[in-house]
Amino acid sequence: MSTSEPSTSDHGATSSTPDAVSAHPDVDAALVDLAEGEKTWGALSLADHGRLLDKVRDLAVRNAEAWVDAAVEIKGLDPKSALVGEEWMSGPYPLAISAAALSASLAKLDAGTSPLDDATFGTGPGGRVTVKVLPLDIFDTLLLSGFSAEVWLQEGIDRATAQHDAGLAQRNPSRTQGVGVVLGAGNITSIAPLDTLYELIAHNRVVALKLNPITDPLLPVLERVLEPLISIGAVRILTGGADVGTYLVHHALVDHVHMTGSALTHDAIVFGTGEEGARRKAANEPILDKPISSELGGVSPTIVLPGEWSSADIKFQAEHVATQRLHNGGYNCVASQAVIVSSEWKQRDQFVSALRDALDRAPDRSPYYPGSDSRVAGATEKFPSATHLGKNGGRVLVTDLDLDQYTPLLQTEYFAPVLGVIDLPYGGAEFATRAADLANDDFAGTLGINIIAAPKTIRSMGSQFESLLERLRYGTIAINAWTAVGYLTPSATWGAFPGHTIDDVQSGIGVVHNALLIDRPERTIVRGPFRPSPRSVLGGEMSISPKPPWFVNNRTAATTARLLTGFAGSRSWTRLPAIFASALRG
What are the start-end ranges of the H helices in 284-332? Predict the structure, then answer.
């Protein structure tokens, strides 16, 4: 998330040890309950686990309106705004579809097969085995026409091994893994409950979920949605500030910690703060005496490969990049923060002008996330020539600087509506290579990267394009889509590129979501249509998708997202016409 200094608004945990704070009997009681609940959870069958997930799915849909109402209040949105669609699409909707997908994987395990038993496998660059995760059925094909996703496995994992190991801890559901803490995020409201489900299922750990104080108004809703798991002692939800988070993660009854947030907050929890924390980190001497996994965001790039675009293409892709930055007000861990373009591209100026216009015209909203204004001010101080856009001038666009002047933009996740355009003086295949090297070597983090390219450009590159994907060290790579589509795909993996350590954590350690329970994934590749329908069809793309409902200027996003959430609870052909009608009006 944000790489600003650790704060209670960030995660509700700092580096203090329990000795420095008073005891929290409510935390003690919750953890004692979970220690007992672990026995109950371990005694349940795979079918029981699946039924509990089905109940969570149903309750997520049943309580969706209350969930969205709470999110609208937290974020200061106009309840009648189309931007409310973001709260449907990033709140109850992904939890419902993920619970269903996890339940389906458990059903296969219960039947004695693998979650990957009927998966579509392929071969990626370097001989990697790939697993198709989108579309998985006819409804996926229709509702996300032209979108696809695949998980690349780590090198050396063959198909038979992947099928054998899929299922993770649910291959032996009676063997539980203790009590895990989930430190919830304060921006996207589905993150905390999704991470809770993943801890329970993939790692077979009961969960103490600590909400970020920003999302405390969601407590009553989440208690209702997760009630089937709370009632058996498998989940407890806690609230409070930094003292509660600190006491919780260092508690003797806790076996594991998972957090979503910033690398600075991670380091504060693991090593401490100040000079002593820096010394401990340098020596890799953690004060946290238990394993920690994490999703920590970073600075996400968007690479625009030069090609011949129509005026409509330029306008649409400018809106696409504006969405990548401005969705949820800019407070996303994979919000694009830097667009890499070729200065030799003949349409470079036209695209940057369209991007400036898209950022300026996007719907205004309140900067709800703590510290946003100060981070925007910090960017303005670093880049005094930046353009201020939007009704109140709160959006910052940085352009036309020398490459070395962009260093703060590449190393600081502003977690605010700040976007830069970086020009590289190369064309063709060399531009793609140089852009990939810049993204790999100069940007902080490895969570996600976007590539925008016309189909003709991709075809002209041939195998070089797949080699470009292999070259990029990111956990999710999206081609003509935003990496957030990977977040919304329950069977895709979500997390940093593998290999980070606690003393060099970057975008985190481990993955979440991953409803097929794949062992040793490397990355997820998402692909989407370059053009919306009907221009996509006219251009030869196999897609009938109109403007996606997650675009910030989609006029019917709220209605479409609400209908999709209802569909997630009851997948029926009769629900499709209303969804299509709403989507086409967007």
Answer: 311-326
